Amino acid sequence: MYTPPFNRADDETALRELAAAVRVGWLVTSRAGAAPAATLLPFVWTGDTVVAHFARANPHWREIDDDTPALLIVTGPDAYVSPSWYPAKAEHGKVVPTWNYSAVHLTGTARVHDDPEWLRAAVTELTDHHEGRRTEPWHVSDAPDSYVEGQLRGIVGVEITVTAVEGKAKLSQNRSDADRTGVVQGLRADGRPGDLGVAEAMAASLARE
């Protein structure tokens, strides 16, 4: 991932928090002589392990052998940045549009799992993770066991051993504080969900500095 020094995000705790908040990422793998394959998967990242699963009908999993190189791309909020929000526009006009965003790349090796017990443990972990914030969470055990067994036959698990973590937060750090404040105000005024997420990330970055 191309990351200028002022956009590097090295705090792994913060990167894990971002990944946990997004909860879904693009798993990318490639075989020699073939175009890369990519699938959007809900996941859980614990320690140096990511757990997810494919639909069995998805051919992507058949391209994964033990220790296949893999990249999981997790993207946070993103937003268009208008140059009209920069006070510098009125000063000298030398401004252009850009796009702000945050992302985490997890690089490692992948392997698939087809064992029913592994799959049940994986979907239980995923379900508990995603249902945990609900006041009345649903549990895998709420469904009839025979039904769950049938559903498990329709999926294939994937486990990624993470060997490197890269983070990027492109939040106009190369602009003046006045320009960055102008972007925060502009994004908040536009009010789209991605815009608001970027605005809050930029405001937090400004406050830390």
Helix content: 25-40%
Strand order of the largest sheet: 2-1-5-6-7-4-3
Elements, N to C (H/E):
HEEEEEHEHHEHH
User: Radius of gyration, Cα only, in angstroms?
Assistant: 20 Å
Unreliable stretches = none
| Tally of individual helices | 6
Assign an overall shape.
Answer: elongated
The main pleated sheet reads as: 7 strands, antiparallel
Q: Determine the N-to-C terminus distance.
A: 25 Å
Mean pLDDT over the residues: 93
Helical/strand content category: alpha+beta
- Quick one: how many beta strands? 7
Residues in β-strands, percent: 25-35%
Structure notes:
By secondary structure, the chain is of the alpha+beta class. It has helices at 12-22, 87-91, 116-131, 145-152, 177-190, 193-208, and strands at residues 24-29, 37-42, 44-46, 49-55, 68-81, 98-113, 155-170. The chain is built from six helices and seven strands. The protein has a seven-stranded antiparallel β-sheet with strand order 2-1-5-6-7-4-3. A hairpin with a 2-residue loop joins strand 3 (44-46) and strand 4. Helix 5 (177-190) packs antiparallel against helix 6 (193-208). The longest helix has 16 residues, at 116-131. The radius of gyration is 20 Å and the shape is elongated.
Layout of helices and strands:
Elements: H1 12-22, E1 24-29, E2 37-42, E3 44-46, E4 49-55, E5 68-81, H2 87-91, E6 98-113, H3 116-131, H4 145-152, E7 155-170, H5 177-190, H6 193-208
Antiparallel strand pairs: 1-2, 1-5, 3-4, 4-7, 5-6, 6-7
